[in-house]
Specification:
By secondary structure, this protein is of the alpha/beta class. It is 36% helix and 27% strand. The protein is built from four helices and five strands; from the N terminus they run E-H-E-H-E-H-E-E-H. The protein has a five-stranded mixed sheet, with helices on one face.
Amino acid sequence: MGTSDAIIEVTDASFDEEIEQVDGLHMVDFWAVWCGPCRMIAPIVEDLADEYDAKGLHVAKIDVDSNPSTTARFRVTSIPSVLFFKDGELIDRVVGAVPRASLEEKILEHL
């Protein structure tokens, strides 16, 4: 995981409490250590977390290998997958190593 203070690491045990029970917009990056494309988008996720933190965006990362229940629950079959939750509800997802503009567009659409 990167160095941004604006990103929290969530797990199967903490997902409900950290994401689903918290109002606002959450961007959750489903990733794995061995995933090259995940490493490619990590700096983008960090930049967006820092940039939009004060605007109400909450950013989290979840390691799919360590957290199979949450990964299966949201039917994440390809990584990286970035899921967007608003007031605890899954509202959107972006799959694959996409450019910054693609993620930023989703953030602005839902903020």
